[in-house]
Specification:
By secondary structure, the protein is mostly helical. It folds into two domains: 71 residues, no CATH class; 42 residues. Helix content is 50%, strand content 0%. It has four helices and no strands. The protein is elongated. The relative contact order is 0.13.
Length: 117
């Protein structure tokens, strides 16, 4: 999983994955994300579907936390969809929950200090 989602650690996409040339369809893809629907990209091999996906992730990283973006290639036949979602739940969501608990305790501590004894 980590090899597909290096932005979890770096916060960005490598330039060779999200090439600088942007096709007109990229803006339509970005716009469609607001609808929170599944978007299907189909096409011949080597026409740029994966590049468009990485460019979309690059754009998402401008406003989203890196660990909210999960990428997986189904060409990797050694891992199932269940494994992918299990990994995401175990490592990514667990860390988010930990941060939320820490924030909640910090907030409670702040409020207690503000109120005083």
């Amino acid at each position: 999983m980590e090899r597909y989602n290096e932005w979890w650690f770096t916060g960005k996409i490598r330039k060779e994955l999200a090439l600088p040339y942007k096709r007109y369809i990229l803006s339509k893809i970005i716009e469609s994300l607001k609808e929170r629907q599944i978007l299907l990209m189909a096409g011949l091999r080597r026409v740029g579907k994966t590049t468009l996906l990485y460019q979309t992730i690059e754009k998402l990283l401008e406003n989203e936390e890196p660990n909210k973006i999960l990428y997986f290639s189904f060409e990797d036949s050694t891992v199932s969809v269940k494994d992918v979602l299990g990994f995401y739940e175990k490592y990514i969501l667990k860390n988010l929950l930990k941060k939320l608990v820490e924030f909640t305790f910090s907030l409670m501590k702040f409020n207690m200090q503000k109120i005083g004894p």
